[in-house]
Amino acid sequence: MSDDDAASSAGPPVRRVSDWEAGALHEIAAEHGTPLYVQDLDRVRENCERLRNAFPDADVRYAVKAHTGRSVLETVREAGLDAECASAGEVDRALAAGFDGERLHYTAVNPPARDLDYVVGITAAEPAVTVTVGAVDTLDRLAERGYDGRICLRVNPGVGAGHHEKVRTGAAAKFGVPYDRAAEVARSAADRFNLVGIHAHAGSGIDPDQLDSHRELVTRMGELARELVEPRAETGSAGGDARPLDLDYVDVGGGFGVPYEEDAPPLDLHAVADATREAVGPLPAGVDLAIEPGRYVVADAGVLLARVNTVKPTPDGTVVGVDAGMTDLLRPAMYDAYHPIRNLGGAAGATAPDERPATPVTVAGPICETGDTLCKNRSLADPIRGDFLAVGITGAYGYEMANQYNSRPRPAEVTLDDGMATIARRRETLTDLTTVERTENDSTGESR
Ligand SMILES: Cc1ncc(COP(=O)(O)O)c(C=O)c1O
Ligand SMILES: N[C@@H](CCCC[NH3+])C(=O)O
């Protein structure tokens, strides 16, 4: 089946910023103010369905870090996906959104003691939360806490991919046990814990031209799974240990890219799925394929609405000041990431944006940093003070990376469900900025 066929049941392969209904966004912005994230749960559902169509035989785990909002987690759970969590906080959110422990995978990267204590603690009540471990020290720290639950071994496959060097994890030494030690560490882990799987993740934002790296990673993981489950004596790990292990899955990570540029082609998910199955090769009986996409599920389900407050001609071109900046959407400042921007109009008495000339502009936020721009020298329908701008493809790693730098309260978020807008996360207030600070009457600061 091609992506076009799948589209009939799960919508088009990507939703562009031009596909959003301007009138509806105007109404939402007028009611809730800006900056404001809007997340469409119907689109999240479509994306889940598209993934399940493309990978019907795989366990699909949503990488919660992309968007942790409760209604998004509930939507993903109802769509039948499991959850991959990066911290105790994400596990807690997923449980609160109704995921059963057995549908949760906690990927522990240099985990703080507090996170391990939490997960070991809840495992008494939620026996099947799986902890994915990428270092022998982490195994030891779990054993010290009496953990005897499900373990997955994170492997560093030595091959990475992704939209920016800062998000290529597959070859970064921080992540996982080096590939050539993985079999030995897996066998010793199986002596102490219930080892159920192996895992690797190439990185985030894998575009069509990086599929070779994904393929290489998957090939290595398929080979490792066979070596562990169906060892031949001569392929035993160091010391000649060739005991067969009993694994449930090989998780080849997430990272499926979405097109941010207006003219970039969408990933052909069915081609990715075919390449994945071919690269992993024949898996031993009882071993399933697992994937853990985040961005693909939520990115094009979201837009960020901002309002133009300043239009300034300068010798370097027109600078359009808006009320959303790098504290609301960090990706352009952090990765030079491109997000499409559409002028929705709305300035009092002004003509509709499609009747205005296109002008090259830099869109800058309210933060006291030169890098606080959402785009540079981009052609937009001539912005006028009072217009609303829609910044597209912000549903993944948008609100999640928002912060309070410059003492700016985080923005609000509205979800759309069957077109109905509901406030999902209220706008922070100035009071929220200081709620964790010690006061004169509070000697420890810990009770608040
Ligand atoms: C371990 C792990 N799994 C899954 C993901 C999801 O990546 P993406 O949102 O690009 O699909 C990430 C993020 O890079 C990750 O670190
Ligand atoms: N935060 C990154 C993705 C990193 C995913 C975590 N490993 C982004 O916005 O593209």
From TrEMBL:
* KW Disulfide bond (keyword) present: no
Under which EC number(s) is this enzyme classified? 4.1.1.20
- Where is each Orn/DAP/Arg decarboxylase 2 N-terminal domain found? 42-299
Q: Which Pfam families match?
A: Orn_Arg_deC_N
> Does the keyword section mention Lyase?
yes
Q: List the Gene Ontology MF annotations in alphabetical order.
A: diaminopimelate decarboxylase activity; pyridoxal phosphate binding
Q: Which family does it belong to?
A: Belongs to the Orn/Lys/Arg decarboxylase class-II family. LysA subfamily.
Subunit composition and interactions: Homodimer.
Protein name as catalogued:
Diaminopimelate decarboxylase
Q: Which species?
A: Halorubrum alkaliphilum
Source gene? Answer: lysA
